Amino acid sequence: MKKLGIIGGMGPEATSFFYARITGRTKAASDQEHLDIVILSHASMPDRTHAILTGDKSAVLEAAMQDIRALEMLGVENIAIPCNTFHYFLEDLQKETKIPIINMLEELPEGFHKTPHLNYLVRRLNGHKHPLYPTAAAVSWCVDNGYIEFMESAFGGNNQDFETQRLILHEKTHFLWAFTLSDEIKNDWIKVGGWYKDPNAGEGWSTTKDVEFVTAYAHGKNPNEDMAESVAYYIKDPEKLRSRALEKYEFIRDRIMNGTRYISKIPDHLTFEVLNLNPDYDYPGKIKRLEVKVEGAPDEEGGGAAARVRHEHSGDRAARGL
Question: For the chain, what percent of residues have pLDDT higher than 70?
């Protein structure tokens, strides 16, 4: 069986969550059917953000290479690093080892692997909200030497892998809007969304449409945010976008993705089969209708009011007096 190496501790909760997700998604009927995993929780890893901002990567690379050499000696066949910011150093590290290092950004569409003008991914320290956008989980700065800031709220929770990748896709789409998409595509998108400039609106834009937006956030902002939300859902949850905004789904498919489609798939181990063993058996049962009738006054002699409840189930009917 293959052995996976994990360089973790950045932070420890992210590593714990990552390990739990691997275990939870592994089809295994016994301990022996699970993956062999070696975890190096390197919480004292030098500060990645400081290394990126100063351009001095030596301390981080030296510490990481010590971990990689240890994993090589332990015979791992793949290495995973559950830390978004650390992916900045992956190219340098991969040159120093033959063991494949899993790059979560490569799980995104090829067009998102290298985004023009996006040079850095930065994470603020835990507990530090963005000074300009205190409720934001991530913020894009679409300038020549651009970067994306991630806050603590971008990570954690039961839906971490989906939400983090969705945020990355969302924020990177802002760079595509700023530097890649043509004016023709942007103008056509504005028409699809019914957008028009409105100086009285907080975002400077309003829309003539009340529906056909994948989220309330997309509806309440501007064409740029609408595009970012829609592209993220096109890749991560295409059925939601298609069911809520079919025209936008088709626009992204044909004009942005050049026909590439993404399909939502439930892992096999989360599916089940329901057998109808008896054609006359209606399963599961549910209450279809409930009628409540109160007779008598509260102060009436004989014990007060009496209630009669009638409830009808799928498959049968019943009436009970209380």
Answer: 80
Q: Is 311 within 8 Å of 289 (Cβ atoms)? A: yes
Within 8 A by CB and 6+ apart from 82, the residues are 6, 8, 10, 14, 15, 17, 18
Task: Write the DSSP symbol of residue 35.
Answer: P
Cα separation, 264 vs 219, whole angstroms: 24
Tokens of 146: 């651009």
99 close to 78: Cβ distance less than 8 angstroms: yes
**pLDDT digit string, tens, across residues 237-271:** 899 999 999 999 999 999 998 777 776 655 555 56
Q: Beta-carbon neighbour count of residue 40 at 10 Å?
A: 19
Q: What is the CA radius of gyration of the chain?
A: 27
Main-chain phi, psi angles of 269, to 5 degrees: -75, -5
**Distance separating alpha carbons of residues 295 and 307, to the nearest angstrom:** 6
Query: Is residue 263 packed enough to be buried (19+ CB in 10 Å), middle (13-18) or exposed (0-12)?
Result: exposed
The model's pLDDT over 19-64, given as tens digits with 9 standing for 90+, comes to 988 888 788 888 999 999 999 999 999 998 888 888 899 999 999 9
Tokens for 251, please give them. Answer: 């626009």
Whether the CB-CB separation of 150 and 163 falls below 8 Å is answered with: no
- CA–CA separation, 157 vs 28, rounded Å? 24
**Sheet of strand 316-321: strand arrangement:** 287-295, 306-313, 316-321
